[in-house]
Amino acid sequence: MKIGLSVLCEQPDRKTGLTSLFTAFVRESLRLYEDVEFVLFCAEGQRLDVDSPRITVKEGYAANNRLVARLHAEHFKIGPAAKKAGCDVLMTTGLVPVRAPLPVAMHLLTLHHLSSTNRIGGLRSFYRNWASCHGLKKARLVITNTLFACEQILSVNPEVAPKLLQSYEGITHGEFHPDGTEAERAMLEERFGITGRYFFWCSNFYPYKQAELLMEAWCDLPEALRREVPMVMVGGAGWGDSKERTLEIARARGAADQVKILGWVSDGEVPVLFRHASVFVHPSREETFGRSVLEAMASGVPCVVQGIPVMHEVTAGHAEIVDYNDRAAAAAALQRALTEESVRARLIKGGLRRAAEFSFERLAAERIEALRSMLGLKPGPWAGQYPPQYASSFSFPGSKGDS
To answer: Are the C-beta atoms of 324 and 330 separated by less than 8 Å?
Structure first.
């Protein structure tokens, strides 16, 4: 089976969770299935960190740093090119090409346009609404990551249930683990000036990530505690003025010198920052998965997350779940996760156990087996251990099958 995979939705000079997901999916698929090949459609110089003779790279397309050109390439060039390259299926993210002369499997992992409070902009919202609706109709397979995301998608188009695959994202357990070293501590001090405990945020400054609410709650902690345990923030991309407003809150509350915004850091530094954090904070009100929370749990770090359905699903109760709109409750949860040893021990033990349930091996097997089924091929060797799970087999509140 030859799979065409477009990674043009990514920025070529900035890796994100999608980059690591694509990389792990390709690597694990090639390891598990001897009959799988990939054709990767990339921008110039854009690469996944996987080396195999069963990968062909097609460069020269526009990536997400040239949005209009990228969408033109995705809709009109990639489909015919995948067909010409002998692909059996094309995998895309968030769309099905207008020109698609072969079966398309669409990842649908972002549903932010469904809520106007996310402030993604009128034009972006219009396009994403059209692309997702068009894709749900035309895709032969739709892949999303949680039961919550399935429910959102079915609220838009319930007819897609038989072709809607729910497949959890994975964790690279060799990178995200709790076994820190003194050499790592020394690196954090030399590289970032981090010398002790810290709260950790790893995200982008999008409005729905609610960095401002986090900053207000953290600033409500006693000043002596803030000075001892600063806020370390990794990431930086965004729209609107969320970053500026977050920094202004810290300045107004006299806490600006206790906040370290590191921007983008290297792939190797991210797991170290997770591993040595004291508390991981994730106040986002809109997610379809939230892999960073599981990466923190796998690193042995207590988490304080926003009380949204997907966080209940993913953490399975092994995190402090709070409404960051309630500043007093959020500040209390932050302090509890930092200072109460019984709470910390419970969250760490449960988080490690829960995170161990997620793997990229499972992700790759579920998705490859679903592609095989879609193409009418016989099940592969992992179908018994990791059978694909479709939304039509689930029961959601209010659905006909819900008792």
So the answer is: yes
> Do 152 and 269 lie in a common domain?
no
* Alpha-helix runs per DSSP H in 173-325: 182-192, 211-219, 223-228, 242-252, 269-275, 291-298, 309-315
What's residue 230's pLDDT?
Answer: 97
* CA–CA distance, 296 with 299 (Å, rounded to integer): 5
DSSP state of 390: B
Enumerate residues 6+ apart whose C-beta is below 8 A from 28.
Answer: 360, 361, 363, 364, 365
Q: Are residues 366 and 331 in the same domain?
A: no
Q: Angle at which helices 242-252 and 211-219 pack, to 10 degrees?
A: 10
> Which CATH number covers residue 145?
3.40.50.2000
Tell me the per-residue pLDDT of 302-355, one tens digit each, with 9 for 90 and over. Answer: 999 999 999 999 999 999 999 999 999 999 999 999 999 999 999 999 999 999
Q: Please determine, for residue 403, whether its predicted confidence score (pLDDT) is greater than 80.
A: no
Residue 334 main-chain phi, psi, to 5 deg: -60, -45
Separation CA 394–CA 302 (nearest Å): 31
| Max CA pair span of the chain | 64
Q: Residues 348, 366: one domain?
A: no
Determine the Cα–Cα distance for residues 268 and 151; give it in Å rounded to an integer: 35
How confident is the prediction for the chain on average, in pLDDT? 92
For the chain, how are helix, strand and coil distributed in percent, rounded to 5?
45, 15, 40
Please, what is the end-to-end C-alpha distance for the chain in angstroms? 40
Nearest-angstrom CA–CA distance, 152 and 174: 33
SS3 for 95?
Answer: coil
Q: How many CB atoms lie within 10 A of CB 195?
A: 10
